[in-house]
Description:
Number of strands: 6
Number of helices: 7
Amino acid sequence: MRYSFKITISALLCILLINACNNQATETKETTASAPTAEDKIKEGERLVASLDCEICHSPKRLGPKGPEVIPELRFGGHQAGSPLPPYDEATVKAGWVLFAPDFTSMIGPWGQSYTANISSDSTGIGMWTEEQFKKVLREGKYKGMENTRPILPPMPWEAYKNLTDEEISKVFAFLKSTKPVKNVVPTAKINPPPPPAK
């Protein structure tokens, strides 16, 4: 009787020990799986940037066989300083039309002329920015993410992007900070004076 009791106790202890080890292994696996690496964050940021179509405006393009193609070495470099723009009819713009440059990096409308920002990792892009600055751009539409600056000009759809979560913004920022630096000081926007007040 005493011998079978010892066997029963030993068996129970073994079962409890195995169960505890399995639970610890599961907890470790879950903790490891739930903590994304920096590489995971960058990869997810790249997916978000593609989904948000940031390259349509922020990457210079050339005409290829299927239409405009991103110039890989200028990816995310914004409107290139000194790049020529085709002439346009000012009367058309004054009539209320909005015009895009052929590579979508500049836009002219009633507000004036805007140029897309360099969002590459270069110091002339967002290389020196903090994540808080980047968040302020997307959440508040502040130029360069700084207080007391002008609002971001069209076509930047920051009003839509402000709905991104903090985590998503952080992932986008991590990816852009990992991109190839493109040295390019984007031209200053030409802002028209506001229209006179309605009578």
